[in-house]
Amino acid sequence: MSTITAVALLVLMAIPEGFSQGIPREILRCQCINKERTPIGRYIGPVEVIPASSHCKDTEIIATYRIDGTKVCLDPDALWVQKVLKKIYHQSSSRHVAE
Fold first, then answer.
1. H or E element: which one contains 81?
2. How far is it, in rounded angstroms, from Cα 45 to Cα 67?
3. What is the pTM of this model?
4. pLDDT single digits (tens) 19-70
5. Which residues have a Cβ under 8 Å from the Cβ of 93 and sit 6 or more positions away?
6. Which of 22, 35, 41, 81 is the most buried (most CB within 10 A)?
7. For 64, which DSSP code?
């Protein structure tokens, strides 16, 4: 096998690998390993709810601290988290009604 043939074969083998990485790997798994049960109340900034999917069986709730912008996973079974989500939902739905 000549050098040109070997190089061409390696290039052709590498092409599909580059095209198969359209979705970053970190999205294809659960984001939350540890979940905060302790209330963090007024320090909560934006909250993101990621529904259960084929990549993660759990509904994940990720809040951002207002102070430094770090993200923390919240336990969806904790009563205080459910109250926060209900408050956010009611604020969001009342804004849509007012518009």
1. helix 79-98
2. 9
3. 0.63
4. 444 545 456 789 999 999 999 878 888 999 999 999 899 999 999 999 999 9
5. none
6. 81
7. E
Q: Which residues make Cβ contacts (< 8 Å) with residue 34, sequence separation at least 6?
A: 73
Distance CA 35, CA 16 (A): 38
Half-sphere exposure of 93 (CA within 13 A, CB side): 6
Regarding the domain delimited by 26-98, which CATH topology (the fold level of the hierarchy) does it fall under? OB fold (Dihydrolipoamide Acetyltransferase, E2P) (2.40.50)
Residue 92 confidence (pLDDT) above 90: no
* Two tokens, residue 49: 């709810």
What are 57's two structure tokens? 């069986």
The per-residue pLDDT for 18 is 47
